[in-house]
Structures are given as C-alpha cells and as structure tokens.
Automatic annotation (TrEMBL):
Organism: Amycolatopsis eburnea
CDD domains per the UniProt record, alphabetical: HTH_ARSR (cd00090)
SUPFAM superfamilies noted in UniProt: Winged helix' DNA-binding domain
Pfam families xref list: HTH_20
Record GO terms (molecular function): DNA-binding transcription factor activity
Domain spans labelled HTH arsR-type: 21-98
Record lineage: Bacteria, Bacillati, Actinomycetota, Actinomycetes, Pseudonocardiales
Protein name: ArsR family transcriptional regulator
InterPro entries referenced in this protein's UniProt entry, alphabetically: ArsR-like_HTH, HTH_ArsR_DNA-bd_dom, WH-like_DNA-bd_sf, WH_DNA-bd_sf
Length: 106
C-alpha cells in the first residue's frame, strides 16, 4: 500500500485560480468552517478541522480548498498540517476572505 505522502500535494499558483473556483470553495458550509478554524489557529491537522463527514468527503473538501488556493498542506511525521494561504489569497482576491470569515462568524 502506498503512503499518503507518496503523491506530492498540488498547490496552484494563485494567478491560475479563477474567481469562480474561489467562490465555489467558500460557498460550502463545511469548507467555510474549515477555513474559519484555520484563520483562528493555523497549522492544525486534518483531523482537528475535519468536518463531520466521511473520510472521502473530507478529502474532497481539502482538495477543493487546495485547488482554490486557500489551503497550504504539508506533512509532519504522521500528520498532515494545514494553513491558509492568506497573504497570497488576499492579494489575488482582496476582501473576499474577510467577507467569507465574517459570514462564518454570523
């Protein structure tokens, strides 16, 4: 069985991320909650911010957030850690993440 770290994680250049992908990533309540958790405390493991869904569904949520340029992931030992690509995302889509986080707090 291959290790989950055998395949490198894809982190797209923000210039390649369309606005529609950013909106799609932020419109789902589970993904928005994950983003809000990372805004409060970066560097959390997948298990710490995983929504109450099946593992395949959670993996899809992580993949969508990565593809939208919101999420940076890296492996540390047996854990996969996560952080927002806040500075890059804010430079590409000014104010969008702030609006989404304000909505998550409501």
């Amino acid at each position: 069985m291959a290790s989950r770290t055998a395949t490198p994680l894809d982190h797209p250049a923000l210039d390649d991320v369309p606005f529609s992908a950013a909106l799609e990533a932020l419109r789902d309540p589970h993904r928005l909650a994950m983003v809000a958790a990372l805004a409060r405390e970066p560097g959390q493991s997948c298990g710490a911010i995983m929504p109450p869904v099946s593992k395949p569904a959670a993996s899809r949520h992580f993949k969508i957030l990565r593809a939208a340029g919101l999420l940076k992931q890296w492996d540390s030992g047996t854990q996969r850690l996560n952080a927002l690509r806040r500075e890059e995302f804010d430079a590409r889509f000014p104010g969008l993440l702030d609006l989404a986080l304000a909505e998550a707090a409501r």
